[in-house]
Amino acid sequence: MMRQSDWKLVMENVWRDGQPKTRDDVKIGWWLRVVVFAVVGMILARVVFLQVVLGEQQVMVAEGNRLERVLVMADRGVIKDREDRILARNIDKDGEVVREYPYGEVVAHVVGYVGEAGEDEVKQGLVLGSKIGKMGVERSEDERLRGEIGEELLEVDATGKRVDLIGKREAVAGQSVKLNIDAELSREIGRILAEREEEKGEYKGAVVVSRAGTGELLALVSWPSFDNNLFSGLPGEGKYKKVEEVLGDGERQPMFDRAVGGNYPPGSIYKLVTAVAGVEEGKVNSETSVLDEGEIKIDSYRYGNWYFDQYGKTEGEIGLERALARSNDIFFYKVGEWVGVEKLGEWSRKLGLGRRTGIGLEAEGTGRVPDPLWKEKLTGERWFLGNTYHMAIGQGDLTVTPLQGNLMTAVVVSGKLCKPGLVVGEEGRCEDLSLSEVGREMIVEGMVGACSEGGTAASFFDFPVRVACKTGTAQQGGEEDDPHAWITAVIPAENSEGNRDDDYANGVVITVLLEASGEGSAEAGPVATQIARYIVEKGI
User: Fold this and answer.
1) CA angle at residue 109 from 190 to 401, to 5 degrees?
2) Which residue blocks in 49-81 are alpha helix, DSSP H?
3) Rounded to an integer, what distance in angstroms lies between the CA atom of residue 511 and that of residue 263?
4) What percent of the chain is predicted at pLDDT more than 90?
5) Radius of gyration of the chain from Cα atoms?
6) Cα(72)–Cα(172) distance, rounded to whole angstroms?
7) Tell me: the pLDDT tens digits for 239-280?
8) Which of 34, 42, 426, 433 could cysteine-pair with 421, CB 3.0–4.6 Å?
């Protein structure tokens, strides 16, 4: 709008001394008036348009402004192995944050995977749609890994457009979790098992590797496995290419964690428990011997030794060390009889059997240590001496997990019951069982004999260091079914010069279970030997 002074200037330009100016002067003055009136008209039109035409709409927009809470997801923590190799991390994929598992199937069961929180998790206070652990360490350590969700308080208009940020609570990133697992050792084990499967066809089993005296879990591999990257929408490797293929394979059951959840009769690796029970209960010493005549008969029942049943041969008088090296059933039948089922059960539990180890994985099984009361409740029958015989050699209704078999071995050679340390910082929680030093030395020497010429573990006969081991062949199902193959072996620890001495108490324990594959010495033994060779070469 023109000011009064501006109008005065115009009039002065048109009139001077009461007389009009020239025609050009008048023309200029006329155009100035037109421009002024046009500007004023546009302003008035705009005011009318805003107030009359758009007035109602503007009121609605103003009144429609509201506050909105927006969740800010926390960055999930990284999972690492003992050497800080990445086992799980968040990555950006096409603008979306997804979980990546660089080692895939060789650590899939122990690491696990994440998925969206469902209704059940929401009831527990979690946010619908947020990412939570569904399996393995991703699940057991979920609270540490997922961090704390943040929040933004926004003012938005009726169209949903952000108007202003009112307040903000920052998200807190999840913590990293470091495992005692050795990813490269796990990869080597996966390679060995995959190679054996290619050679022999369908292959099922598990491998557990730990350090005696501390409980550190160096490897926990279940086979067959799956690539946990598939659950993040990333391309996987191995047999399965889709989640549906993994979930739908009811025959191979790739998601079943056999290492911690499989319950199997242990066969002759259980003779380590029988040996400990015999020594600690004062029934067995360096002078104890049993006459092996090939079989023991009770009424119409016979209980034979494998050497007699397969080759028609006997061992004669045999003591503890030789009985372990040769896995003599007759000797351990008698030790079981001397000790009794109650003490066998007691020492089984002391050595970590019949209960969860405390590893923290949801899939862990308990195994089973039978006793007369259990049998009576289950079958209505009383316990017979033959049941004790079967239990003493790891047969009958006794079952263990591969993890328990590994733990049992570590206790025997170290004298300490250590909680399996999956996460760094959990190792070293050990209970000294105060086992007889002389008795342990006898048992370990018998185990060394099993891995030496004349023992049952032929694959270790030419091994560069003295390995202590026990093989097992566990009958299951009917006579036509192949037995489960077991071996549990201890590689002595390195001394200060980097050489493997006879320190089995701090050695590396390898336990191999192969389902329905045959004899432990012939099937599980070669797998354990390959793993042991890798461990020695790498100085693990």
Assistant:
1) 90
2) 55-64
3) 14
4) 69
5) 38
6) 10
7) 888 999 999 999 999 999 999 999 999 999 999 999 999 999
8) 426
pLDDT digits (tens, 9 = 90+) for 501-525: 899 999 999 999 999 999 999 999 9
Return the DSSP state at 126: P
Helices (H) and strands (E) in the chain, counts: 20, 22
**Residue type at 183 in one-letter notation:** A
**Partners of 98 in the β-ladder:** 91
What whole-number distance in Å separates Cα of residue 76 and Cα of residue 115? 12
Please calculate the CA angle 313-318-320 and round it to the nearest 5 degrees: 130
Phi, psi of 266 (to 5 degrees): -80, -15
Burial of 109 (0-12, 13-18, 19+ CB in 10 A): buried
State pTM to two decimals: 0.84
The distance of Cα 464 from the centroid of its chain, to the nearest Å, equals 32
CA-nearest of 324, 307, 277, 265 to 445 is 324
Least Cα distance to 320 among 355, 280, 357 occurs for: 280
Joined together, the tokens standing for residue 5 give 């002074």
Contact 486, 265 (CB under 8 A): no
Distance of CA 209 to the CA centre of its chain: 14
SS (H, E, C) 168-233: EECCECCCCEEECCCHHHHHHHHHHHHHHHHHHCCCCEEEEEEECCCCEEEEEEEECCCCHHHHHC
| Tokens (6 digits) for 117 | 């929180």
For 206, residues 6+ apart whose C-beta sits below 8 A from its C-beta are 221, 222, 223, 258, 259, 262, 402, 512, 513
The tokens describing 488, both together, are 């549990």
- Find the angle CA(432)-CA(436)-CA(441) to the nearest 5 degrees: 105
Residues constituting the chain: 540
70 contacts 167 by C-beta, under 8 angstroms = no
Start-to-end CA distance of the chain, whole Å, equals 89
